[in-house]
């Protein structure tokens, strides 16, 4: 049986979509089947989902229920401070940091204070269960991607089987570590929105930043086929360009554009790259590849991403955004019309997250034939 890798991309609140997809995949697999993923690689909010799932590798069904329960009852105040005083203080600190620079090493420069997220993750993630799952072979490895602010490298911190060694490529390294809360907070530290986290030698921020090859960690960890759950939202549809002149872009819209570039573009590019490599490898006879000692190999790939625009869905739930943050983004009306891009990342609200979970579930159930074909070896083993 080929080792199966699961890749969960980043995207803030958009990662609720991944929970729905994982729930549907569980429904598609044979009853009594535990963790179908040997390797889990996550970035940003995808790393949080990945670590939570890895900690329940011995009881995959319970892990899915645990994730769904958490995301279905989210509210923004569980992720970051939403009170006017907290947001105002963060804005003043951010503005002062940009204009004057941090005066003390302890000063944080970010739009939002995400200390509530740290408290939540400390309560709901069972970090100690990860090594136990690896030891009893329910899990081969799990990785969390971060971005080193001093080195400029994409660092995949991994915990896995003893046979896995560190790796280094251009601007990409893999480093063995016992994964902790700091790794999750660093991986999800969206630059300028959430504060970076110091780990060992430097400060780290969101793993999607400068992540040129999002699928690379899973391949280095030994994945032979890969399931990617993206959060792009109708990424392959033509852009909706109208003849009506646009107004000058708001700060919220520009921030949303930058977040899309960080979280979505690299994954889409990496998927296209792997598909091209697969086509090339398939044209070269296996005997020739063996004779020439070619390292390239065909990697089975299944990508599941939203069938609807998550920006549009976020716009429909804009009233669930805390008032103080809506004002910080330029007012409620402006946020709904042109700031839904950034809202789709920051709207950790019950209604929005539940809508994304349902969308993920529906999308995956509609692709049941592809999912069952991808996991066909699991069905064969179950017989």
What is the helix content? 40-55%
Strands, count = 10
Order of helices and strands: EHEHHHHHEEEEHEEHEHHEHHHHHHH
Give the structural class: alpha/beta
How much strand?
5-15%
- Helical segment count: 17
Radius of gyration: 21 Å
CATH class label = Alpha Beta
Distance between the termini: 14 Å
Q: Which assembly state applies to the chains in this document?
A: single chain
Keywords: Hydrolase, Lipid degradation, Lipid metabolism
InterPro entries: Acyl_Trfase/lysoPLipase (IPR016035), NTE (IPR050301), PNPLA_dom (IPR002641)
Active site: 44 (nucleophile), 206 (proton acceptor)
GO molecular function: hydrolase activity
Can you walk through the features of this model?
The protein is of the alpha/beta class and about 375 residues long. It has a single domain (about 5-235, about 260-310, about 350-375), classed as Cytosolic phospholipase A2 catalytic domain (3-Layer(aba) Sandwich), CATH 3.40.1090. The chain is built from 17 helices and ten strands. Strands 1, 2, 3, 4, 5, 6, 7, 8, 9 and 10 form a ten-stranded mixed β-sheet that branches. It is globular and about 65 Å long. It starts with a strand and ends with a helix. The model is unreliable at about 330-340 (pLDDT under 50).
Outline of the structure:
Residues 6-219 form the PNPLA domain. The protein has 383 residues and is of the alpha/beta class.
Overview features:
383 residues; alpha/beta; Cytosolic phospholipase A2 catalytic domain; ten-stranded mixed sheet; 10 strands; 47% helix; globular; Patatin; PNPLA_dom; lipid metabolism; lipid degradation; NTE
């Amino acid at each position: 049986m080929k080792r199966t890798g699961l890749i969960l991309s980043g995207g803030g609140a958009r990662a609720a979509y991944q929970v729905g997809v994982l729930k549907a995949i569980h429904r598609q697999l044979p009853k009594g089947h535990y963790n179908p993923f040997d390797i889990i690689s996550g970035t940003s909010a995808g790393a949080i989902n990945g670590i939570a799932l890895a900690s329940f590798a011995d009881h995959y069904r319970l892990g899915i229920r645990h994730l769904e329960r958490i995301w279905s009852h989210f509210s923004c105040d569980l992720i970051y401070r939403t009170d006017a005083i907290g947001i105002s203080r963060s804005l003043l600190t951010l503005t002062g940091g940009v204009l004057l620079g941090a005066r003390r090493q302890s000063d944080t420069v970010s739009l939002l204070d995400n200390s509530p997220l740290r408290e939540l993750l400390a309560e709901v993630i069972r970090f100690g269960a990860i090594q136990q799952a690896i030891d009893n072979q329910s899990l081969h490895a799990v990785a969390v991607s971060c971005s080193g602010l001093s080195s400029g490298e994409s660092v995949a911190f991994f915990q896995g089987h003893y046979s896995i060694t560190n790796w280094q490529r251009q601007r990409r390294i893999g480093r063995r570590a016992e994964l902790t809360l700091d790794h999750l907070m660093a991986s999800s530290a969206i630059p300028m929105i959430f504060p970076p986290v110091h780990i060992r030698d430097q400060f780290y921020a969101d793993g999607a930043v400068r992540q040129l090859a999002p699928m690379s960690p899973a391949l280095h960890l030994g994945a032979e086929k890969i399931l990617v759950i993206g959060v792009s939202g109708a990424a392959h549809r033509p852009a909706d360009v109208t003849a009506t002149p646009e107004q000058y872009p708001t700060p919220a819209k520009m921030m949303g554009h930058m977040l899309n570039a960080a979280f979505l573009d690299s994954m889409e590019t990496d998927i296209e790259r792997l598909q091209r490599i697969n086509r090339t490898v398939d044209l070269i006879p296996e005997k020739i590849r063996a004779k020439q000692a070619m390292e390239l190999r065909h990697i089975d790939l299944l990508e599941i991403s939203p069938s609807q625009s998550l920006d549009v869905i976020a716009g429909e739930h804009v009233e669930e955004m805390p008032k103080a943050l809506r004002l910080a983004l330029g007012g409620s009306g402006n946020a709904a019309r042109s700031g839904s891009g950034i809202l789709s990342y920051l709207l950790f609200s019950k209604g929005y997250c539940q809508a994304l979970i349902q969308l993920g579930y529906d999308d995956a159930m509609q692709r049941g034939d592809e999912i069952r074909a991808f996991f066909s070896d699991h069905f064969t083993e179950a017989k």
